[in-house]
Automatic annotation (TrEMBL):
SUPFAM superfamilies: MFS general substrate transporter (SSF103473)
Protein name stated in the entry: Major facilitator superfamily (MFS) profile domain-containing protein
Presence of the UniProt keyword Membrane in the record: yes
Organism: Alkalispirochaeta sphaeroplastigenens
Keyword Transmembrane helix set for record: yes
Superkingdom field: Bacteria
Residue numbers spanned by region Disordered: 407-439
Length: 439
């Protein structure tokens, strides 16, 4: 029977310290992104150049998540954390000293790499500290902390203009402060991360719809997070309003996590994926055609955040249903690569459209991407009316898009499964029908 016992005092303190560190780190990351986009626009950088600068950050995040293994093996967790937090803080300030597109591309790559290594270290500690019986709830809480950090910091844009030094200085302070909670807390146990081969095609074959959803989420989130400040600027929103506008997206995401998760658990992953992509398409079209600031723009932003952004967690849940416990380490790394490639490509594609067609093209392109995924999903439902859950179906959780470790958080050791319709040996075999059974 699953225990609901709360973790001991020492473990609770450790988890809260890790959450505090993640909140500070997420806040700094989100504020830096907004400041870079708005400042780049004020400096006269073309939209395509801003897209490249934004994509460089995600390229750094993707590379850093795997470089972290080598760094930590060489320097250890604490020294790696301290070194790269300091380097990330320096890179934040350097943006103001080197106002040049090429310099910013390099700095954003470095910043993404540093933050990615920090996330790997912190999530390794969280993986050690979290009691097995409470991992699902701790993962969901972690996701909410990360999402809220990215939204709640945005109103600062209204108090400090992006043309000045202050926003970059605050980013540096936040990243530096993230050192304090975890370095002053003792983490019991040994944090381990393992190098592993990445099998992209293996994951794609196990769950085409789930994997395609991860790629789509990368394209959508990468483009939206990177270029939404530029879109808001083009819509005539003032600096004080842009931060509140970006907060609305995050509020929508947090508000719809539970309803979409409930739909996913009760009506099936496919139903939730289709609801997310179709409603996200409609909301993106709304953002693309709304003439200017007002209730319609705010409502469309809330709905877009509520339906389009959770596509990532829904897709991860879909893939996990098709995995055996021993497959999850390799699959987590593969899924993070798929997401990373999408998040690099998203800003590049969307920024080219914005440069040629104007700011609203950002959400026209996103609507096209989501609609394409919805069509693919409907085709999968038509071709494969039902599918077998090959692994152990877990409840829906909010997965932060930070490192492959969050995707391994609920991993359990291999065990013999009970002889149930979903997990019996007969269920493992494809049915005699020529139809395939992958989701």
């Amino acid at each position: 029977m699953r225990s609901n016992k709360l973790p001991e005092h020492g473990v609770t303190t450790t988890i809260l310290a890790i959450f505090a560190s993640i909140f500070l780190l997420g806040s700094g990351s989100a504020l830096q992104n907004t400041a870079v986009v708005l400042r780049g626009s004020l400096e006269g950088f073309p939209d395509s150049t801003i897209g490249i600068i934004s994509a460089a950050y995600y390229a750094g995040m993707l590379g850093g998540s795997f470089l972290a293994i080598l760094v930590i093996k060489h320097a250890g967790y604490v020294r790696s954390f301290a070194a790269f937090a300091s380097l990330a803080s320096v890179s934040s300030l350097a943006h103001v000293l080197l106002i040049d597109p090429l310099a910013w591309i390099l700095l954003r790559t470095l910043h993404g790499l540093c933050l990615s290594i920090i996330f790997v270290v912190v999530e390794s500690w969280l993986n050690v500290a979290a009691p097995q019986a409470l991992r699902g709830r701790i993962l969901s809480a972690y996701g909410i902390v990360y999402l809220s950090s990215m939204g709640l910091i945005q109103p600062l844009i209204g108090y400090f203009p992006p043309s000045g030094f202050e926003l970059f200085g605050i980013t540096s302070i936040l990243v530096s402060l993230c050192l304090l909670p975890v370095t002053l807390t003792t983490v019991q146990g040994e944090a381990l991360i393992t190098d592993t081969k990445i099998r992209l095609l293996g994951v794609l074959k196990k769950s085409p719809m789930g994997t395609a959803g991860v790629i789509t989420s990368g394209l959508v989130a990468g483009a939206h997070v990177s270029l939404a400040p530029r879109y808001a600027q083009g819509m005539g929103l003032g600096e004080g309003t842009i931060g509140l506008f970006l907060l609305v997206f995050s509020l929508g995401t947090m508000a719809m996590q539970w309803p979409l998760g409930l739909l996913s658990d009760r009506s099936g992953r496919r139903a939730a994926l289709l609801a997310s992509s179709l409603a996200g398409t409609a909301a993106a079209l709304g953002l693309g055609i709304v003439p200017g600031p007002g209730p319609l723009l705010t409502g469309a932003a809330f709905l877009f955040g509520g339906f389009a952004i959770p596509l990532y967690s829904l897709s991860i849940a879909t893939v996990n249903d098709q995995l055996l416990p021993e497959d999850m380490v390799q699959s987590a790394s593969a899924l993070y690569v798929f997401y990373g490639l999408g998040s690099v490509a998203g800003p590049l594609i969307a920024s080219l459209g914005m440069e040629r067609l104007g700011g609203p093209a950002l959400y026209w392109i996103i609507a096209l991407i989501l609609a394409g995924y919805a069509v693919f999903g409907l085709s999968r439902v038509h071709r494969v009316p039902g599918f077998i859950i090959r692994g152990s179906s877990e409840s829906y959780h909010t997965y932060p898009r930070t490192s492959p470790l969050t995707l391994q958080f609920l991993r359990r050791p291999p065990r013999k499964r009970r002889n149930t319709p979903e997990s019996s040996p007969e269920a493992e075999k494809p049915p005699k029908s020529p139809r395939k059974t992958r989701s």
